[in-house]
Amino acid sequence: MKFIAVRDLRSKSSQIWKSLPKEKDVVITLNGKPVAILSATSGDNLEETLQAIRTARALTAVEAMQLKATQAGLDRMSLQEINAEIQAERKSRHS
């Protein structure tokens, strides 16, 4: 995968756009850190590509939440404790 600095994106944008179909994906960096991904697509598969990206982001978010919950010990809560938490939250929303 090719990495390109933001400044190169500005100054060499024409070359980057022309090479994108061949490269498929290009990572854009700012101060050496990835900040965006340019991904080749077409009008024929735009919606499918966007859906795949959204699905990947959602899965990543769920995995992060699961890891955080496990680290906090929340994976060991009983059903009774879970239901009590839900009831307390619902009650606080109605107050």
Structure, described:
The chain has 95 residues and is α+β, with helices and mostly antiparallel strands. It contains 4 helices and 3 strands. Strands 1-2-3 form a 3-stranded mixed β-sheet. The radius of gyration is 21 Å and the shape is elongated. A hairpin with a 2-residue loop joins strand 2 and strand 3.
What is the topological layout?
Layout: E1 2-5, H1 6-11, H2 13-23, E2 25-30, E3 33-39, H3 46-71, H4 79-94
Parallel strand pairs: 1-2
Antiparallel strand pairs: 2-3
How would you summarize this macromolecular structure in one to three sentences?
The chain is an alpha+beta fold. The protein has two domains: 1-40, YefM-like domain (YefM-like fold); 42-95.
Number of strands: 3
Task: Provide the succession of SSEs.
Answer: EHHEEHH
State the helicity in percent bands: 55-70%
Low-confidence regions: none
- CA-atom Rg in angstroms: 21 Å
* Largest sheet features: 3 strands, mixed
Q: Mean pLDDT score, rounded?
A: 92
Assembly type of the shown chains? single chain
The chain-level structural class is alpha+beta
Strand order of the largest sheet: 1-2-3
Number of domains as seen in the coordinates: 2
Tell me the β content.
15-25%
Features:
95 residues, YefM-like fold, three-stranded mixed β-sheet, 4 helices, 62% helix
